[in-house]
Automatic annotation (TrEMBL):
Membership in a protein family: Belongs to the FMN-dependent alpha-hydroxy acid dehydrogenase family.
Stated name of the protein: FMN hydroxy acid dehydrogenase domain-containing protein
Swiss-Prot/TrEMBL cofactor(s): FMN
Gene3D superfamilies associated with the record: Aldolase class I (3.20.20.70)
Keyword Oxidoreductase: yes
Length: 423
């Protein structure tokens, strides 16, 4: 891993982060304070957080069968390494809604980040900016939209200064800030919805992502055992997007003062589902506000819904079952991805244009705030970079996109959960 023996390419040399860690340990005796092995990291996170913090991000619906199905689906697909391929220069860049980004990874929307660090969503937003990869803000965030945008902007300025040879394009060309997506939980007050959309657009969030699988929370017995719904507690977190919204506060400030759950119950997880007809209205309003920027639906799990999303003019879909947190016994997202890909086309090998990462960055910032979040995300990028190097795939676009020969399906051999680390 000679840093002087790596030709400059389109992507940063993420793999050098492993060398940096080895070097610090060998020369100064400085070691990481926690493991980034996912299972070990999850276990150490339990010790860092109280039950409310841990289970908010890690509880599953019902018996957790969908969560297990997600894990098993990944285990059934194996990389086919190629030998004697020139991987000295890797290109992990891809284009996502007009943004040319350095790697096909983005921060998933997770709410109430103040459960994990006092600065909440300001931490992952800043790290996403530093890394130049997209950040998606949840409607259930514990920081105002505008403050998160400012943190992301600060991180992006660090990224642009330190990666001057890697200029990633924005929708209109030129060196871009880190892309910002806004994830919407849509209530039934259109005035409040439009206020949120306008705030997001003015703050530089140029892709709108509607979550469709969580009109209300799924059946979560582990949360119920400890009444884990922080919105109903004194001095709650998770109301900050609502309490900073002028339209919501004009209508409901007195109610919010008396009932801390007013924001979450009426505008986020309200329990009253929308239909495709309402989606058409939302897309039209977002396009008017943003000048036609993309609208994305999150929560697609079958070919029929993917085609319906295209029919109503969605520019993108997120194939997800909410990490197994909504419908227990549901199909794994990776399990249905091939048929959805066949219906809508143009993806990376088996999967999508990009992958959203959620719990991993939460676990990292639960340990060390900003530095912990940065450590796990840089480690993930280094892992991807190294895997492409030793696996014989130098380019995401040229060697992975649409290449079915890069993967092989194995229907058997899935180990019991808890055995992954011992293989």
């Amino acid at each position: 891993m000679d840093p002087n023996n790596k030709p400059k390419g389109p992507s940063p040399h993420y793999s050098l982060y492993q060398r940096e860690i080895f070097k610090r340990g060998g020369t100064t005796g400085e070691f990481p304070s926690f493991s980034v092995h996912p299972e070990e990291l999850q276990e150490s996170t339990k010790k860092k957080l109280n039950d409310r913090g841990y289970f908010y991000a890690n509880s599953n619906a019902g018996l957790g069968w969908t969560d297990r199905a997600n894990r098993e689906a990944f285990y059934k697909w194996r990389i086919v390494p190629r030998a004697l391929v020139d991987t000295n220069v890797r290109d992990m860049t891809t284009t996502l809604f007009g943004h040319r980004i350095p790697a096909p990874i983005m921060f998933a929307p997770i709410g109430i980040n103040k459960l994990y660090t006092t600065l909440g969503e300001l931490v992952p937003a800043k790290i996403a900016g530093e890394l130049g990869i997209p950040y998606c803000l949840s409607t259930a965030a514990s920081q105002p939209i505008e403050a998160v945008a400012e943190a992301n902007e600060k991180g992006a300025s660090v990224h642009n200064e330190s990666n001057s040879v890697h200029e990633y394009d924005g929708p209109n060309g030129g060196n871009a800030t880190s892309p910002r997506f806004f994830q919407l939980y849509m209530g039934h007050d259109d005035d409040i919805t439009l206020s949120l959309l306008n705030r997001a657009w003015k703050s530089g969030f140029d892709v709108l992502m509607l979550t469709t699988d969580t009109w209300q929370l799924g059946w979560r017995p582990t949360d119920m055992s400890i009444a884990n719904y922080v919105f109903y507690y004194p001095n709650p977190v998770g109301n900050e997007v609502g309490s900073s919204d002028p339209v919501f506060m004009k209508k409901h400030s007195r109610e919010l003062a008396e009932d801390t759950g007013k924001w979450i119950d009426s505008c986020v997880w309200h329990g009253k589902a929308h239909t495709w007809d309402k989606i058409k209205w939302l897309i039209g309003e977002w396009h008017k506000i943003s000048g036609g920027r993309p609208f994305v639906i999150k929560g697609i799990q079958c070919e029929a819904d993917a085609l319906k999303a295209l029919e109503v003019s969605c520019e993108g879909i997120v194939v997800t079952n909410h990490a197994g947190r909504q419908v227990d016994g549901a199909v794994a997202s990776l399990e249905v991805l091939p048929e959805i890909v066949q219906a809508v086309g143009d993806t990376l090998a088996l999967g999508a244009h990009a992958v959203m990462v959620g719990r991993l960055y939460v676990w990292g910032m639960s340990h060390e705030g900003e530095s912990g979040c940065r450590h796990v995300m840089k480690s993930l990028l280094a892992d991807l970079d190294i895997t492409m190097t030793v696996g014989g795939y130098p380019s995401i676009e040229k060697d992975v996109r649409g290449n079915k020969e890069a993967l092989r399906y194995n229907p058997h051999g899935v180990p019991p959960r808890g055995e992954y680390a011992r293989l």
